[in-house]
Design a protein that fits this description.
Strand content: 25-35%
Helix content: 25-40%
Distance between the termini: 73 Å
Order of helices and strands: HHEEEHHEHHEEHHHEEHEEEHEE
Number of domains: 3
Shape: elongated
Number of strands: 13
Low-confidence stretches: none
Radius of gyration: 27 Å
Number of helices: 11
């Protein structure tokens, strides 16, 4: 009895628009009926002999019971458990990102340390897609994109599934107020993120396939930045694939906001252990080629160079970049060059800011500013 009461309570929380969206998406047909003032009638997709009566308002006292009964009908017709149907109805307002590992134990579990790492990388995967949706580029620095950070705060972690180790990430999205088939409309940021994730993993798979065939190089990845490829996405996919000894990522769209660009309701892309090395290398090269704006460095001036008639001068600074000591070259105007010269002669360190970029084996700091002798 308590189980049924809990299910009725779960049904009470289901949004009415989600029920309509689910029925339409699964072939039920709305009937013109005299009950339209208080309820809508849908005919079953098989032969139309069974009718689902959907209450016209969530405010009705028996709303939870009525939705519970509809879930029971759907479960009987589709051959599914009632609780699974209720779960689908409750998720109709969210895009679903499903991350499935291949190496789960027989009881569908993984080690605690592996599970924690997988959750972290699943979060990074969505964060990479959110950054690309805001502004495509080769690499993103953690915490720099406020829109992506706010989006991540709205994502929920859903229940896992049997059959393997699966992480379900629920991305709430506003319901569409336009009729199906309307294209060219500005989508909410949440949908742009999940679309970018689906596009990014597909583009990564396609780029790797072309590289493996020997007909493409890193340029194949760089040409697809607008599709969602980034160093961050490649690295997260690589680490998830390695942790799971294989990976499957799927994205399906909220039923209250059907997708008008992808055919079908789910995009699925698979990765195998041999993909890890290539993904890691793509991530490394993309990161190296990304200019890092407003980067702060601190170190010692190891070399100076300036022509006698040139007011500008070049300095090489020994500083830590990504935890490794590196030589960073920068061109300074007359005033700042005087400061780095003073630091070099006095063997003092300098602190400055600029746009850091790697070219081949060397680092260059463009637009150096805020030079301070320490």
């Amino acid at each position: 009895m308590n189980g049924l009461t809990n299910e009725v309570s779960l049904a009470r929380a289901v949004a009415l628009r989600g029920v309509h969206a689910y029925l339409r998406a699964n072939g039920w047909v709305r009937a013109v009926d005299a009950l339209r003032a208080t309820a809508d009638v849908y005919l079953s997709p098989q032969d139309g002999r069974e009718a689902a009566i959907v209450p016209a308002s969530e405010e009705y006292a028996d709303y939870g019971t009525r939705i519970f009964q509809i879930a029971q009908q759907i479960g009987r017709i589709e051959g599914r458990q009632r609780l699974a149907v209720l779960s689908d109805l409750s998720l109709s307002d969210s895009d679903l990102v499903r991350v499935r590992l291949s190496n789960a134990a027989a009881d569908n579990t993984v080690r605690l340390t592996d599970g924690a790492a997988v959750l972290e990388q699943a979060k990074n995967l969505l964060l990479a897609a959110a950054c690309s949706a805001d502004r495509p580029q080769r690499m993103y620095r953690a915490g720099r994109n406020k829109a992506a950070g706010k989006y991540l705060d709205r994502v929920r972690l859903g229940q896992s599934e049997r059959g393997s180790y699966v992480i379900n990430l629920l991305s709430p999205v506003a319901p569409s107020l336009h009729r199906q088939g309307t294209l060219g409309l500005v989508e909410p940021f949440e949908r742009r993120v999940t679309r970018m994730l689906a596009s990014g993993v597909r583009a990564s798979r396609h780029a790797m396939d072309r590289v493996n065939r020997g007909v493409a190089d890193i340029g194949e990845f760089e040409s697809r930045l607008a599709e969602g490829i980034s160093a961050n996405l490649c690295r997260s996919v690589a680490r998830l694939t390695e942790a799971g000894n294989g990976l499957e990522i799927s994205v399906s769209w909220a039923m209250t906001r059907p997708d008008q660009q992808d055919v079908g309701q789910r995009v699925t892309v698979a990765f195998r252990p041999p993909d890890v090395a290539l993904l890691e290398e793509a991530a490394r090269v993309l990161a190296d080629r990304q200019e890092r704006t407003n980067e702060e460095i601190q170190g010692y001036v190891s070399r100076l160079a300036r022509e006698k008639t040139d007011p500008k001068g070049t300095a090489t600074i020994k500083a830590f970049v990504d935890g490794t000591m590196a030589s960073v070259q920068a061109v300074f105007d007359s005033e700042d060059y005087g400061e780095v010269t003073r630091a070099h002669e006095a063997r003092l360190s300098v602190s400055l800011e600029g746009d850091l970029r790697r070219e081949g084996q060397r680092w260059h700091l463009r637009n150096p500013r805020g030079v301070t002798v320490i």
